[in-house]
């Protein structure tokens, strides 16, 4: 701490606004640390549940009887047995089964092993919008896990200073993400800049890696205006190209990158939009959310015009709107959804993610729908929720496959 800072802190009036904020921040930070250490001690980490034979059959696309016979014939990985003597597979074993079947049935190899081939470009999907509460992070999280469940190699990048995606993927930002361990360390303009692979960490979810977020991400927005004025950073080092440039260093490791962009039009958001090959804009079918999205689109249009003017044009393989937190029997929401579909046509995904207590209850356990054990929520509630999430994610997956020339 500098002498000036020490004097400033010493003279800080505890009853002033700044004094109260400093005290509240310190108290809350300590309580969050205590809660995390109590609920998730170092020896207790998040683990992904195992999957039943019926779930595996659905994921891989083979009949349950075929899967059972493979187990009896000792073909492929051998599952564990549950207390009820049911066959249970880990996600690693499911991916082993995919590889086994792709080799055994070469004519169906793309069905069993959908990972990108040599000439397929790595897909970068940015999830972005202004409005808080539009399920942006929930969308990014479920999409990343869904794609990993399909057998793809996925990298999730958390660009939000709130770092909710990071926490949901089993990393506590306050305790476990140090300085220079986010994408800020990769994008910064000084000698402490790091290669992207150095800040990537594996998660408990097989096939899904993470670049975590935390509050230091804000520094990129503080430093970028001075970098722009300096005219030192051009070409691939230009402020808008820095994330795209970094991602080229991991093209051989991943099939898809999912970016959870900040809830504002920041320099980080612009980096995400520029790097992306696909853009998903989640929006709740309420007029206040649609009005906010309109501002997002208007400001984005102006920024893209400026970027093109300075030699950094942006185009995407696909851009889609996703209706989230949708209540199918709410007449105003239905009308707004119909309005968006009439205005934007096929740019609105057919599936809408329904408003459901299943996602809320899963979040209370620091889990997603894909991680919930059966029986954690009511069967009908869970089925409605997972069907809507799967339908939306399947549409996005199909967009990726189209880019790869598979449909």
TrEMBL record:
Q: Which residues form the AAA domain?
A: 122-306
Q: Which residues are in coiled coils?
A: none
Q: Which CDD domains match?
A: ParAB_family (cd02042)
> Sorted alphabetically, which SUPFAM superfamilies does this protein's record hold?
P-loop containing nucleoside triphosphate hydrolases
Positions of region (Disordered):
67-86
Q: Please provide, alphabetically and separated by semicolons, the GO molecular function terms listed in this UniProt record.
A: DNA binding
**Alphabetized UniProt keyword annotations:** Plasmid
Pfam families annotated for this entry? Answer: AAA_31 (PF13614), MerR_1 (PF13411)
Give the record's GO biological process terms.
regulation of DNA-templated transcription
- NCBIfam families in the record: partition_RepA (TIGR03453)
| Protein name (database record) | Plasmid partitioning protein RepA
Q: Which organism is it from?
A: Roseibium alexandrii (strain DSM 17067 / NCIMB 14079 / DFL-11) (Labrenzia alexandrii)
**Lineage of origin:** Bacteria, Pseudomonadati, Pseudomonadota, Alphaproteobacteria, Hyphomicrobiales
């Amino acid at each position: 701490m500098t002498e000036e800072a020490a004097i400033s802190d010493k003279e800080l009036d505890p009853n002033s606004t700044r004094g109260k904020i400093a005290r509240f921040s310190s108290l809350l930070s300590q309580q969050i640390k205590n809660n995390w250490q109590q609920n998730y001690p170092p020896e207790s980490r998040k683990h992904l549940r195992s999957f039943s034979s019926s779930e595996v059959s659905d994921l891989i696309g083979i009949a349950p009887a075929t899967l059972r016979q493979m187990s009896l014939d000792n073909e492929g990985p051998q599952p564990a047995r549950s207390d009820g003597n049911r066959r249970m597979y880990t996600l690693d074993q499911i991916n082993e089964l995919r590889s086994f079947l792709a080799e055994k049935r070469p004519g169906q190899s793309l069905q069993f092993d959908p990972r990108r081939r040599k000439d397929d470009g790595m897909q970068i999907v940015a999830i972005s919008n202004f409005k808080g509460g539009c399920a942006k992070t929930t969308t990014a999280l479920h999409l990343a896990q869904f794609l990993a469940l399909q057998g793809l190699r996925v990298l999730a990048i958390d660009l939000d200073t709130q770092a909710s995606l990071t926490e949901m993927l089993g990393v506590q930002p306050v305790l476990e993400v140090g300085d220079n361990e986010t994408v800020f360390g990769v994008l910064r303009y000084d000698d402490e800049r790091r290669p992207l692979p150095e800040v990537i960490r594996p998660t408990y979810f097989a096939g899904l890696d993470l670049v975590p977020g935390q509050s230091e991400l804000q520094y990129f927005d503080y430093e970028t205006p001075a970098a722009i004025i300096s005219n030192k950073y051009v070409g691939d080092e230009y402020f808008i190209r820095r994330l795209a440039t970094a991602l080229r260093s991991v093209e051989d490791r991943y099939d898809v990158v999912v970016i959870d962009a900040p809830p504002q039009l920041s320099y980080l958001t612009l980096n995400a939009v520029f790097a992306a090959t696909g853009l998903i804009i989640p929006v709740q079918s309420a007029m206040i959310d649609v009005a906010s999205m309109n501002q997002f689109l208007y400001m984005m249009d102006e920024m893209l015009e400026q970027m093109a003017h300075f030699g950094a044009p942006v185009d995407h393989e696909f851009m889609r709107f996703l209706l989230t937190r949708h209540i199918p029997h709410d007449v105003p929401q239905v009308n707004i959804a119909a309005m968006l579909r009439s205005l934007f046509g096929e740019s609105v995904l057919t599936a809408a993610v329904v408003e459901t207590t299943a996602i809320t209850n899963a979040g209370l356990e620091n889990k997603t729908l894909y991680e919930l054990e059966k029986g954690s929520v009511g069967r009908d509630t869970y089925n409605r929720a997972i069907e809507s999430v799967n339908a939306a994610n399947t549409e996005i997956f199909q967009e990726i496959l189209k880019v790869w020339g598979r449909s």
